[in-house]
Write a structure and sequence with these properties.
Two copies of one chain form a homodimer. Chain A contains twelve helices and 25 strands. The first copy, chain A, is an alpha/beta fold. Chain A folds into three domains: 196 residues, FAD/NAD(P)-binding domain, CATH 3.50.50; 132 residues, 3-Layer(bba) Sandwich (FAD/NAD(P)-binding domain), CATH 3.50.50; 123 residues, FAD/NAD(P)-binding domain (3-Layer(bba) Sandwich), CATH 3.50.50. Chain A has a five-stranded parallel sheet with strand order 3-2-1-7-18. The first copy, chain A, has a five-stranded parallel sheet with strand order 9-16-10-11-12. In chain A, helix 1 packs parallel to helix 8. The longest helix of chain A has 16 residues. The radius of gyration of chain A is 24 Å and the shape is globular. Chains A and B meet through helix 8, strand 21, strand 22 and helix 10 of A and helix 8, strand 21, strand 22 and helix 10 of B.
Chain lengths: 487, 487
Amino acid sequence: MATRRERLVIIGADATGMSAASQARRLRSPEELEIVAFERGDFASYSACGIPYWIGGAVPDRDQLIARTPEEHRARDIDLRMRTEVTALDVAGQRVRTRRLGTGTGDGQDWTDEGWTPYDKLVLATGARPVRPPLPGIDAEGVHGVQSLSDGQALLDTLHTLEPAGRSGDTNDTNGAGDGRPRHAVVIGAGYIGVEMSEALIQRGFRVTVLDQAEQPMSTLDADMGELVRDAMCDLGIEVVTEAAVTEIRADDRGRARAVLAGGTEYPADVVVLGIGVRPETTLARDAELPLGDAGGLLTDLAMRVRGHRNIWAGGDCVEVLDLVSGRPRHIALGTHANKHGQVIGANVGGGYATFPGVVGTAVSKVCDLEIARTGLLEEQAEHAGLRYVSTVIESTNRAGYYPDATTMRVKMLAEVRTGRLLGVQIVGREGAGKRVDIAAVALTAGMTVEEMTALDLGYAPPFSPVWDPVLVAARKAARAVRERGG
Amino acid sequence: MATRRERLVIIGADATGMSAASQARRLRSPEELEIVAFERGDFASYSACGIPYWIGGAVPDRDQLIARTPEEHRARDIDLRMRTEVTALDVAGQRVRTRRLGTGTGDGQDWTDEGWTPYDKLVLATGARPVRPPLPGIDAEGVHGVQSLSDGQALLDTLHTLEPAGRSGDTNDTNGAGDGRPRHAVVIGAGYIGVEMSEALIQRGFRVTVLDQAEQPMSTLDADMGELVRDAMCDLGIEVVTEAAVTEIRADDRGRARAVLAGGTEYPADVVVLGIGVRPETTLARDAELPLGDAGGLLTDLAMRVRGHRNIWAGGDCVEVLDLVSGRPRHIALGTHANKHGQVIGANVGGGYATFPGVVGTAVSKVCDLEIARTGLLEEQAEHAGLRYVSTVIESTNRAGYYPDATTMRVKMLAEVRTGRLLGVQIVGREGAGKRVDIAAVALTAGMTVEEMTALDLGYAPPFSPVWDPVLVAARKAARAVRERGG
């Protein structure tokens, strides 16, 4: 007896959406499950995290960032419809309304209404959208976000027209370049994206200024650790301006960005990059009255099913995830979570079983050869969560001190008073510093105390670590602080 | 009311002994606790793990391997007596007998009996001794162990007399070098020390042959992973001969090593390095009828106190430690454990409190740029422990595949059937491969299942990891194997 073929509709064809599609297809045949995925953009399954390295030139070809083409997905019986936007979600009627975008930008009337598509199961993987503050001049030519491959391509096109002095010998340039004048880039926001984009633009020969409202760049670290990032950025020749609120982007009479005004100072800008952060893209979900959290992300259960809805799943940059350290939901847009969500959703949609228990807030990045990592809670986050803590900082080296190229790293560690439970770690250093944060990420997941961490059996050999790994040195100091502080 | 000043006697002044002394001194003043440490050798507090890098030339100066000189210890009111050997331990009488070695080798009658020294508390930190099989010719000139700094110096002295062709332009050489003939080194044993010494000798310009009885080099890995190490050694130009039992070291008529015989083949050898492994140095303890385990190491409680003795502690290479994965005691000679033991002993001896819960068997090493790591149990060890397991191997990359210099690593993972508990991980790869084993080391300590590991929030950014870290890829495959295998 044949059961009715079900239809799975997926909105958004990047990491979460297409991982879910692939995983569901592994578990269910096309005869059992039809899979339709709608993507309003021009690309599916690409690595947004790789965009700064493509812009900077380390990754020469855009297509290297594409994990799987639409054709490859279709070859596996996934009905992927590119440039197709979902305009409405009818939860009661179990259907979505779509429109097909034309070859243009998708603005205006360049589209065709396709009507309603019914679904049995729905996956919301609508991602995030970059924050674009309502500044005067924000829509000037030469102001770019870097959220999607299309954004990256637009930025690269602008950069090519600005070919900085010293990078091109082209004397036929008609776009105002080739005049020997240095080209200026202003990056607004000094978080991960802003810092990575600053380095990329320096590598392309631009003079780069980064503007941020916070006390230090990289506000995903405490300010004392962020200061080390500032130093490294300055060493690269990046101008770092903090505690600077941008009030205006000024354009020339042809509508092109020419300067950014912040804190009363004008910073010249041939190009402006927005690295202010992202927000969950949940317009459809909000209109459909699906449950959203404080950060505007969808709220799900542990199986990534939207709360209160038995046949709707959501994952990736459009959801909030449980922070296992603070016990609160948080919005963290990160490709590695998005992929995990997709796997979990695909397993559950396909009739298997999987859960996503939550995150501990791990992130790693680099500026030039400076590696920057954090996991768990910052001081302010610990306070907000109602936790009383001790905070300690140590310096140690990535290798045995006598081994060639041993370099210094700084490790900050937070532990709860009384229990001694690890709450967070931040690391800034050179080679081998960043991924050491994984030690703390696992310890946080396991709920270890810093005292327990002092006995961890970590890999030791002179080329890899001092006899006490920096994380152990930090744990010892934190454990001592817990004992001395008492309750 | 003054209490009687206690005396702490420490036998052996390397990592464990002097860490214990330093820690105890921090907690107890010289008025409360007298600390006397006896060391029969010429050096205290040095990094034996660094010897191969000193021999190879990466560490130019021997003294860089010395963490603290005897004078520095004495300045902190630790009565450190060098070249003083403890010859007997009288547990009932709470005293040790010592003799002072002369300026010579310490063999024969070149010493002075110093009589008995009473103790209130005793620390045994006698370390390990290299295995010297009773082969014909083992005592020939040019046969060297590399356990101590003195061993290393003796080897270096030999190497200098053999200055290989192409390394020296010295035409006045009177030791048989400078004749254009390549110099041969044979390393017996292809474990960590043997592999590291092979690389060091290649770096010094020798032709190097490594002989081992096992199927593959690095028998601290399973054979399928050891094969990758063999390939890397061969790429360096090292001749690797396995399943070869050494039967004789042949000397010339001046008593100098000239060849090693193994499996019926003669391998020319101007110098022979023993890298066969070490055994706990517990002669004193055995004579005093202290409790020893199957591997010949002292048995202690969790506070590192010798079982059944309230005022004797032991740690470092002369003890057995609890393997937290198999539940059995094991002998693991490793500087990082020795230092931890010293800290724990010093805290307890000084009136504080600390324990050493055990190890999970983590080790990391490298050959040229190939990084080699393991933690937990090998297949054979799991079998011996009575564990039924699944074993999986994956290949992935250290960075995002599109990021420059992404290189392959292989990760092997063992998990218990039914429970899915992680049992062991082995990793072989290039930059960034080795220390990834720490993720598994923490997971083993926490008793995680491979299913739980699939959700770990590990640091992700394209320069550091693919979107699925190789350890996550391995955990996913192992989790699938656990599910499919059933009980």
